[in-house]
Specification:
Blueprint (H helix, E strand, L loop, with lengths): L2 H9 L7 H10 L3 E6 L2 E6 L2 E10 L2 E2 L1 H13 L9
Antiparallel strand pairs: 1-2, 2-3, 3-4
Helix pairs in contact: 1-2
Length: 84
């Protein structure tokens, strides 16, 4: 899915998001995988002090983790870097 469309869906309140699509979206915001421990995928981004911890549950992202990411985007004024 197009990253801008996925972002719009999320901002419109849809929290039923595929894990793989969400990973593509957060990577477009500059996050990169730091490590994987069990089901926990830990992402980092330069200039962001907090870690982003995501879990793949049945191919979906947990809704509260999407909300945590949105708070990071707002707190650090992050923008979409690319949309290929």
């Amino acid at each position: 899915m197009n990253k801008k469309k996925l972002l719009k869906r999320i901002l419109d309140g849809n929290r039923d998001v595929r894990f793989s699509e969400f990973i593509s979206l957060i990577e477009a915001f500059g996050f990169r995988i730091s490590r994987v421990t069990g089901s926990h995928h830990i992402f980092v981004r330069d200039g962001v002090r907090e870690l982003l911890n995501l879990q793949n549950v049945g191919g979906r992202v947990k809704p509260y983790q999407i909300q945590q990411w949105l708070k990071l985007v707002e707190r650090y004024n992050l923008t979409l870097e690319n949309d290929e």
